[in-house]
Design brief:
The chain is mainly α and 383 residues long. The protein contains 18 helices and four strands.
């Protein structure tokens, strides 16, 4: 006997399927229905049964009530630029786990924005227009706004990464470090005047590359843009997009101020057009950036020898693990993982402002996790 049909909203079903990231055929397999049946739910030709709606909600990790809304929500929608990042290969599709991570990040962002509304005004991040403003000028203004001195140095890449995250956090910009998956987007930005968000991918991404991604995504926020970014493929220096090029120039100037780079080259006796791999290594150590970023900056400032970028790609190319030898890293305790992902201020804000049950749901934590977190972070109050 067929189950009782449920009057779901076809447009909402179609929206949820699109946001999931899997194809209709792939999702139909997990739902144990024919792909045409699923397409029928999306078009409104067929109504799913009560059990099928429950299974759909479970597979898409959505509340069951969502499918009965009169229209699809817009505030939680994943932008097209995230699902199809500029510069990605034709036919490239962001994976379902990465889309799920983005949805979770947006939910935390929304919770922080709601908590700040009423007692904190918009984050006063300087704003720019890519058609009118030079990225170098804007980057200098933003670095000053973040109160990061041009001559600031760090002991290692992780110290630099943590200091930059802290500077952004102190200014109200959320910076999350999430596992988006290997060979996925390197990061994304989502503008909200109360809680602007930067997310960087941590899977197979060293800290110096994450740092440059933070600079790049910060540029998108300066432009009041929401976007996802991929690493340039092959030997290309930049993604072929005016906006992406603007953001790359912004990130380079933000992290490697021109006066400091020139001073470093003078101290090493490197003239214009003579900077080779030794110069790249010096820039890496001074600013804690990747070899690729250092080479681009040296070329921008006229210090690079011909073909330096290609030499850097050949020399600093990361080794890929042999097939079958990869190991799954051990996961830290959940409270430690959330602290690494979201940072202290975000956890404190969500736990202090939302009802207990809602806060735990948004952060995907349990009461015991919060108690352990409170033992380590004084600003967090145990539930």
């Amino acid at each position: 006997m067929a189950g009782k049909p449920s009057p779901v909203t076809p447009a909402v079903v179609a929206w949820a399927v699109e946001q999931d990231g899997r194809s209709v055929d792939e999702l139909a397999v997990t739902l144990k229905v024919d792909p045409e049946t699923l397409r029928g739910w999306m078009r409104g030709d067929v109504q799913p049964t009560v059990g099928e709606v429950s299974r759909l909600a479970q597979r898409l990790r959505r509340p069951r009530a969502l499918f009965f809304l009169p229209s699809a929500p817009t505030s939680s929608a994943i932008p097209t630029a995230f699902r199809r990042p500029p510069g990605s290969d034709p036919g490239h599709r962001v994976s379902q786990p990465a889309l799920l991570a983005a949805r979770r990040a947006y939910r935390v962002q929304r919770a922080v924005a709601d908590a700040r509304e009423g007692y904190l005004g918009p984050v006063p991040l300087p704003r720019a227009d890519e058609t009118a403003d030079r990225p170098a000028d804007v980057a200098a203004t933003v670095r000053q706004w973040l109160q990061v001195a041009d001559d600031q140095t760090w002991g290692d890449e992780y110290a630099a990464l943590n200091d930059w995250r802290r500077a952004l956090d102190d200014r109200g910009i959320l910076t999350f470090a999430l596992q988006l998956g290997p060979d996925e987007v390197r990061g994304f930005a989502r503008w909200d005047e109360l809680a602007p968000l930067i997310v960087v991918n941590t899977v197979r991404v060293p800290p110096q590359v994450r740092l440059y991604t933070i600079g790049h995504e910060l540029a998108h926020l300066v432009l009041r843009d929401s976007a996802a970014c991929v690493e340039p493929r092959g030997d290309r220096m930049l993604v072929d997009s005016p906006t992406e090029r603007w953001c790359e120039m912004f990130a380079a100037t933000l992290l490697m101020p021109a006066a400091e780079v020139r001073a470093l080259m003078r101290a090493r006796g490197v003239d214009r057009g003579q900077g080779g791999l030794d110069a790249v290594s010096a820039v890496q150590r001074r600013f804690r950036v990747s070899g690729r970023a250092a080479a681009v900056r040296l070329q921008d400032l006229g210090y690079a020898v011909d073909g330096l970028y290609a030499r850097v790609l050949a020399t600093f190319r990361p080794k890929q693990p042999k097939k079958g030898t990869e190991q799954t890293p051990m996961s830290p305790p959940r409270h430690t993982q959330r602290l690494r992902e979201y940072g202290e201020h975000t956890l404190e804000t969500v736990l202090a402002s939302l009802p207990e049950r809602d806060a735990l749901s948004v952060l995907r934590m349990q009461v015991d996790d919060v108690r352990k977190l409170a033992d380590e972070v004084p600003s967090v109050t145990a539930l």
